[in-house]
Specification:
Order of helices and strands: HHHEEHEEHEH
Helix content: 40-55%
Number of helices: 6
Number of domains: 2
CATH superfamily of the largest domain: Cation efflux protein, cytoplasmic domain
Strand order of the largest sheet: 3-4-5
Strand content: 15-25%
CATH architecture of the largest domain: 2-Layer Sandwich
Number of strands: 5
């Protein structure tokens, strides 16, 4: 989002907020508001300048909406061309594949991988609970290498992959596993 777009949204939000608060506290009345809104400049240059500013605001808002939709569509799948045609793999499919691979490990439970597309490449964030006593440095390094290798096998070596692991909890007995550590999830994240 560009600086100009953010500035316009901040100014419009502040103006709307001040007007609504003023109306609710009766500092601003509807008569004052209508008096300002009905005074349309009669001078031609002022009218054309206000029309151009209004048109510019509408175009900036439409451009922001267009880029946000394009960005959300683009970031949901990885697309590349092969000799036979175009291939598109959704991020959810990659997450499911990684989840199945990581659930086979007995050292961790409740593993939740999340795949993100960044400008520099692909970022994988895996969060889970450690269930056995292991050397954390060696174990996490091995998991990161396995995740990276799995993504490279799926997408090819030309993609840059960064793997971030987050051990949420160390649960060495069953009572520790029963207490569930809930993380808020973005609504409708996995729907298309």
């Amino acid at each position: 989002m560009g600086f100009l777009t953010v500035l316009i949204y901040i100014i419009l939000s502040l103006a709307t907020g001040v007007i609504l608060i003023g109306l609710s506290l009766e500092i601003i009345t509807v008569d004052i508001l209508t008096a300002y809104l009905t005074e349309v400049p009669t001078d031609f240059p002022l009218r054309s300048i206000s029309a151009l500013i209004g048109l510019l605001l509408i175009l900036i808002c439409l451009r922001y909406i267009q880029t946000s939709f394009r960005r959300s569509r683009k970031n949901k799948s990885i697309t590349f061309n092969s000799s036979e045609g175009k291939v598109s793999i959704t991020l959810v499919a990659i997450e499911d594949m990684l989840r199945k691979m990581l659930e086979a490990k007995t050292e961790v439970s409740r593993i939740r991988p999340k795949v993100l597309l960044k400008k520099k490449g692909i970022e994988v964030i895996a969060r889970g609970v450690l269930t056995t006593e292991v050397n954390l440095v060696d174990f996490t390094k091995e998991m990161q290498e396995q995740i990276k290798e799995k993504v490279h096998n799926l997408l090819g070596e030309d993609k840059s992959v960064q793997v971030n692991l987050e051990i949420r909890k160390i649960a060495l007995n069953k009572n520790d596993l029963m207490i569930e550590d809930k993380e808020p999830e973005v609504p409708f994240r996995n729907y298309e």
